[in-house]
Amino acid sequence: MTTSIQDAAHPFTPRALTALLSPATRLLGLGEPTHGVEAFPELRNELFRHLVEHEGYRSITLESHCLAALTADAYVTDGIGTLEDAMGNGFSHGLGASPANRELLRWMRAHNEQRPPYERLRFYGFDGPLEITGPGSPRPALTALHDYLAAHLDLPWNRETLDELLGPDERWTNPAATTDPTQSVGRTPEANELRLIADDVRALLTAHAPHLTAATSPDDWWRADLHARSAAGLLRYHAGMADTTPTRVGTLMCLRDAMMADNLDAIVRREARRGPTLAFAHNRHLQKDKSRWLLPDGWGPLAGRTLEWWSAGAIIGTHLGDQYAFAATTFGTRGSDIPHPDTLEGLLSTLPAARAVLDPSCLDRKLTPRVPADHTYFALDPATTDQIDAIVFFKEI
């Protein structure tokens, strides 16, 4: 362990992490290297509480269904529903089963109970309406949009038109379309017509924003715009699902992160007058450089191929500049998976603290990249650590 590493690394505290960030930060991305390990969302909770109590943060957003998150937000901000409802219906990707996520909502609700609305913490999801088995139906987003607009504007289409074009939801949620593009309805004439409607709706929302905001509220308009973004992004993703070319999977990765970036941008703009936002997701979605994924066995003819796409963090970083900061987390040992000494994780494993935070600028970018024991974990690339603002290292998970 070199003197520079010793000087740059400190036992983890939230204050030690934020000391490495630009004071201009409006969006802090905290990444995790793998999903399903409670140590990472537990660290997120610890950091978020510090950010709220000492650094003016008033919102958090997770790699979860942006529309489902409205249920969780209603609970934490206004006490609507129960914690069980929020956990069961406010998350996607199985995140409602996480004890750390339960504790996050419980703490946010307790924090908000005695505070006026403008001071209350908000909860967001910034992922698209996607699940592990594939994208959802655009029906919830489109019908919510119709109901909002129809109460104030004359529309060239009605709910019956939407229902006819949408057909049964099972057509959209067919899990077979995840691997077989011929099973997707994303490029049917009906789907193409729905994409035109979604585009027109977004234009109507913008053109009539002054009237709609006055007739409802800024929050109601913001939620309508969220549904409009979701409908357009989801229909675009379904069209990608129907792509029969070899670039299909890479295109879907690009489309998903573009949706994430759009949602992050909208959240930052909404929260601009209240304070910064903490975003929590996989490192690959929040990093500032291009994301890469070597497809493992099980992907048929695509196995062994490396996909490349610009992450949501890279995209939002071009908009925000130094107002976006990225803190990556990684780990040393997990069971029998022990990093080799000449890797970044092997070097960091020589640090004495169980959890350490360090300035990546002191690291040797010529270290050997770690080869994980399984495909669920993405090691940090030593060559791109100059694009990370802080690293939090767990010696063992």
From TrEMBL:
InterPro entries xrefs: Emycin_Estase, Hydrolase/PRTase-associated, UCP036794_erythomycin
The reply to whether Hydrolase figures as a keyword in the UniProt entry is yes
Keyword set includes Hydrolase: yes
Enzymatic class: hydrolase
Q: Which UniProt keywords apply?
A: Hydrolase
Which EC numbers characterise this protein's activity in its record? 3.1.1.-
Transmembrane residues, as ranges?
Answer: none
One Pfam family, short name: Erythro_esteras
**GO terms for MF:** hydrolase activity
Q: What is this protein called?
A: Erythromycin esterase family protein
Q: Which organism is it from?
A: Nonomuraea guangzhouensis
